[in-house]
Design goal:
alpha+beta, 5 helices, elongated, Lipoprotein
């Protein structure tokens, strides 16, 4: 029974990507925002988390905050163009990923892009 519980916990931990944005406000206080979690496909989830945190980091800088992980500010958050006449949806992105037409990183970025509603701007 102990082995089963240990295996279950390990499997759960391995299958989850999480993150939160750490920034410093104008008063010098350390704050956290944009806590996010994806737990479906680890090779893709880490990129979805990265996209959300980078997007939030760029928004925090616009508000005058200092982002602790400066790497997030340098990331290119562009996503591939949707096929002609279509807009990105989870189903379309999954289908293209399953056919190896987009990479794990592109798929992860698209998942976050759609979650944040950015695909609605493509209409």
């Amino acid at each position: 029974m102990k082995l089963f519980i240990t295996t279950l916990i390990a499997t759960t931990l391995v299958g989850c990507s999480t993150g939160k944005l750490e920034y410093i406000n104008a008063r010098g206080e350390t704050k956290f925002a944009c806590e996010t979690e994806y737990s479906w496909q680890p090779s893709v989830d880490k990129y979805a988390v990265e996209y959300v945190l980078s997007y939030c980091a760029k928004q925090a800088v616009k508000q005058g905050h200092t982002v602790v992980d400066q790497r997030l500010l340098a990331l290119d958050l562009s996503v591939p163009e949707a096929p002609k006449g279509q807009i990105w949806s989870f189903e379309l992105a999954k289908s293209m990923h399953n056919k190896d037409l987009i990479t794990d990183k592109e798929y992860g970025y698209l998942v976050a892009y759609i979650d944040l509603g950015h695909n609605l701007n493509d209409q």
